[in-house]
Amino acid sequence: MKIANSLKTLRSRDKDCKLVRRKGRVYVINKKKPRYKARQG
After folding, report:
1. How far is CA 14 from CA 2, 23, 24, 27, in A?
2. Largest CA-CA distance found in the chain, in angstroms, rounded
3. DSSP bridge pairs for 38
4. Cα separation of 12 and 18, whole Å?
5. Which residue from 14, 15, 34, 1 is spatially nearest to 26, judged by alpha carbons?
6. Residue 34 class from Cβ within 10 Å (0-12 exposed, 13-18 middle, 19+ buried)?
């Protein structure tokens, strides 16, 4: 999982990436390619 300051660029890497808020944190998840997972902050 990558930890990034801005998830906007990471979300645009793949069309299956989704932005999700969980417990006050922002995540990028991708069911088809899990290596694109990321967390903000």
Report:
1. 15, 24, 24, 14
2. 24
3. 2, 28
4. 9
5. 1
6. exposed
Take residue 15 and report the two structure tokens written for it.
């069309």
pLDDT at 41: 80
Confidence label for 17 from pLDDT (cuts 50, 70 and 90): very high
- What does the block give as tokens for 38? 């990321």
Q: What are phi and psi of 17, to 5 degrees?
A: -70, 135
CA-only gyration radius of the chain, Å: 9
Q: What's this model's pTM, rounded to 2 decimal places?
A: 0.81
